[in-house]
Amino acid sequence: MNLSESKTALVLAPHPDDGEFSCGATLKKLSENACQIYYAAFSPCEKSLPSGFAKDSLFKELTRAVHILGIPETNILTFQYPVRSFPDHRQEILEDLIKLKKQIQPDLVFLPNSNDIHQDHEVINREGMRAFKHCRMLGYELPWNNFTFTNSCHVVLKKSHIMAKMKALEAYKSQAFRNYHNEEFFFGLAKTRGIQIGEDYAEAFECIRWIF
């Protein structure tokens, strides 16, 4: 089965915006191919919000962002785990992931890659692999969280897919202060990943498990 044949995909985002930053253009491409995409965000990240933003700001921004990528609001699933404390909630997170597997039955799962050093991302990666071990899994790239990254899978993209990703990221007004919240950076990364495979643009992933 190739990527375009995926019927149901699930994005595991430790924090709102992780899915857009890492694989937003790929999600747009999948939605154009009539793939049903679900987005699970595990923390409202209240402690990480700049002064002046409401506690639910990131979840509201998430709804606006994924709509641009073709994901309906009804396919957003949110949880209330405290940011930077996921290691204290491993078992509860695993149980929620198992429930998601039964509820959604995805044929493709996007999750943080195996070398992501953020403590929350590491938990979603490890528990996600346990919960979805019988599914196809791709580990997405967030360069600021990696010393190394195995880019063993590339998704060929059009410029319009990258533009949709950037428009989605614009919805995250609360995260505009981050230095990687930058159009030049993401176009450069997409260009780099594209050149690696002889294409104009691409997003790269760690191939954790692929089932034909």
Structure report:
The protein has six helices and seven strands, in the order βαβαβαβαββααβ. By secondary structure, it is of the alpha/beta class. It has a single domain, classed as LmbE-like (Rossmann fold, 3-Layer(aba) Sandwich). The chain has a seven-stranded mixed beta sheet, sandwiched between helices. The chain is globular, with a radius of gyration of 16 Å.
Could you list some keywords that capture this structure?
212 residues, alpha/beta, seven-stranded mixed β-sheet, 18% strand
Largest sheet: 7 strands, mixed
Unreliable stretches covering 5 or more consecutive residues: none
Query: How far apart are the termini?
Result: 5 Å
Q: What is the CA-based Rg, rounded?
A: 16 Å
Give the overall average pLDDT.
Answer: 97
Shape: globular
CATH homologous superfamily grouping? LmbE-like
Helix amount, in percent? 25-40%
Count of DSSP strands: 7
If classified by CATH, what would the architecture be?
Answer: 3-Layer(aba) Sandwich
CATH topology: Rossmann fold
Order of helices and strands: EHEHEHEHEEHHE
- In total, the number of domains comes to 1
Query: Spatial order of the strands in the main sheet?
Result: 3-2-1-4-5-7-6
CATH class: Alpha Beta
- Helix count? 6
The SS-based structural class is alpha/beta
